[in-house]
Specification:
By secondary structure, the chain is an alpha/beta fold. Helix content is about 35%, strand content about 20%. The chain has 11 helices and 13 strands. The strands form 3 sheets. A 7-stranded parallel beta sheet has the order 3-2-1-6-7-8-9, sandwiched between helices. Helix 1 links the parallel strand 1 and strand 2. The longest helix is centred in the middle third of the chain and has 19 residues.
Length: about 300
């Protein structure tokens, strides 16, 4: 009989990000060895990551969001559903960093479940990006203390690079830590010498110098710094190509800037990368950026 594995995440469709893309790769492989179920937020369209995997959806607030992600409603129903999902499974695979994953870790410790935590982003650095300067350091301090305590409830913490392992040790994480490096599909993300056809497809000037970014259009990605750097760059016939989605007001504001293109969500990221000359990842909150690895694989 296969062990029961509950995959917990604070993101789900239609919010496609690095964590969700990681799960898209992970679940088909894990299905061979585990009886899987998901515990994820209900953001909207209930698309399934993998057919045949039961999902527990957690209601989210209509009014409170962080970087475009609706936060979990603080309700007894939600807490009960998280507790029940944890109790019914033998192993937890948790990817945060927000309230669903934190509560799942808490109940995992309470019910003595084997818990594995994958750290896609450093929580206290992430939350510091969204709050006013007068309170962000205080909130970041408490988020750091809570996160470290929860990491220490895990049987195993997985990180994408060795440097983060050292940082967590210095911060007080004493649970076992293993490095599992991320990778990309090098048959999908390949260099392209002739860019003309793709630039024509995307209505980009054929002779332009295209500076590109792939990811969420949001505060934690530091897009404002990229915009300012682009403005100051002494490059003739330049275009800034922002591939990704985010808060509508922010996307609309950037669309009105001269020679800035904002695509919204796309499924053919590899084609946009092949149309670029230079790739930039301005984010200050990445651990390992999948978008950057894909750009490197594309020869940028």
């Amino acid at each position: 009989m296969k062990p029961r594995l509950l995959v917990v995440a604070d993101t789900y469709y239609p919010q496609v990000d690095g964590t969700l893309r990681f799960m898209e790769e992970f679940l088909p492989r894990a299905k061979k060895d585990f009886e899987l179920s998901l515990l994820v937020p209900l953001f909207g369209k209930q698309k399934k990551l993998q057919e045949g995997i039961p999902i527990t959806f957690i209601d989210t607030s209509r009014w409170i969001s962080l970087s475009g992600y609706a936060l979990m409603k603080l309700s007894w129903k939600n807490i009960k559903n998280i507790r029940k999902a944890v109790a019914q499974n033998g192993v937890l695979f948790i990817q945060g960093p927000a309230l669903i994953s934190y509560l799942a870790t808490f109940f995992g410790q309470r019910y003595r479940k084997r818990t594995i935590t994958y750290i896609h982003v450093i929580p206290w650095e992430l939350y510091e990006q969204f709050l006013p300067p007068l309170v962000n350091h205080v909130v970041s301090f408490f988020v750091k203390r809570l996160s470290i305590w929860l990491f220490n409830q895990s049987n195993l913490v997985i990180v994408p690079y060795a440097g983060l392992q050292q940082e967590l040790r210095q911060s007080g994480v004493h649970s076992p830590i293993e490095v599992a490096k991320l990778g990309v599909d090098i048959t999908r993300f390949t260099p392209l010498d002739q860019k003309e056809s793709l630039r024509k497809k995307f209505a980009l000037p054929p002779e332009a110098f295209v500076i590109g970014y792939v990811g969420r259009i949001s505060a934690e990605k530091n897009i404002a710094v990229l915009i300012e750097a682009y403005r100051q760059a002494h490059i003739s016939n330049k275009v800034l190509l922002l591939v990704g989605a985010g808060e509508p007001a922010t996307m609309e504001r950037y669309r009105h800037l001269p020679q800035v293109r904002v695509t919204g969500f796309v499924t053919n990221v590899e084609d946009y990368l092949k149309a670029m000359d230079v790739f930039v990842m301005p984010s200050l909150t990445e651990t390992t950026s999948l978008a950057t690895l894909e750009a490197m694989s594309s020869g940028l």
